[in-house]
């Protein structure tokens, strides 16, 4: 009976420890996501295409409309350069 109790206590402590680590990681992930959001918004506001592209996957697929899908960083960067040469982009709400 003592072995069963000890096993249960050990199991509960292990689960509690794991849960704390998961929540700690989630907090770090949330902070990293917020920092990334701020950085990419600043890049768009400055018209800094090179900086904005740092946050895009190499095989990015960006649908601009139902019949216009850009594939790859170069295609997205070219479109973004064209857009920023004509417009000022700024996120006002997300």
Structural overview:
With 94 residues, this protein is mostly helical. It has one domain. Helices cover 68% and strands 10% of the residues. Strands 1-2 form a two-stranded antiparallel ribbon. The termini are far apart.
- Structural class determined from secondary elements: mainly alpha
**Count of domain modules:** 1
The largest sheet has its strands arranged as: 1-2
Question: What is the first-to-last residue Cα distance?
Answer: 56 Å
Number of helices: 3
Q: Quick one: overall form? A: elongated
Mean pLDDT: 82
**Low-pLDDT segments:** none
As a whole number of angstroms, the C-alpha radius of gyration is: 23 Å
Along the chain, the helix and strand elements come as: HHEEH
Largest beta sheet, briefly?
Answer: 2 strands, antiparallel
Number of strands: 2
- In helices, the fraction of residues equals 55-70%
Residue fraction in strands: 5-15%
Attribute tags:
single chain; 94 residues; elongated
Protein topology:
Blueprint: H1 2-46, H2 49-53, E1 61-65, E2 68-71, H3 73-86
Antiparallel strand pairs: 1-2
Give a short overview.
It is built from 3 helices and 2 strands, in the order H-H-E-E-H.
């Amino acid at each position: 009976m003592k072995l069963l109790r000890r096993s249960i206590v050990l199991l509960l402590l292990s689960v509690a420890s794991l849960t704390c680590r998961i929540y700690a990681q989630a907090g770090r992930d949330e902070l990293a996501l917020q920092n990334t959001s701020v950085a990419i918004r600043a890049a768009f506001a400055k018209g800094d295409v090179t900086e904005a592209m740092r946050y895009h996957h190499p095989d990015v697929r960006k649908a601009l409309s139902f019949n216009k899908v850009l594939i790859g960083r170069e295609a997205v960067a070219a479109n973004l350069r064209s857009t920023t040469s004509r417009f000022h982009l700024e996120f006002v709400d997300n």
